Amino acid sequence: MLRLDGSGPLYQQVYRTVRDEILNERLAPGEKVPSTRALASYLKVSRNTAVMAFEQLLAEGYIETRPGAAGSVVASFLQQNGATGSASNAQFREDAKPRLSDVGRRGLEAARRRRVQWQLRPARLPYDFRLGRPAFADVPHALWCRLLGRRARRACLDDLEYGPPEGREELRKALADRLGRSRGVETTPDQIVIVNGSQQALDLIARVLLNSGDSFLIEEPHYSGALSAFMTVGAKPVLARVDEEGMRIPTLVARHRSPRLVYVTPSHQFPTGVVMPLA
Question: What is the pLDDT of residue 24?
Answer without folding.
Answer: 85
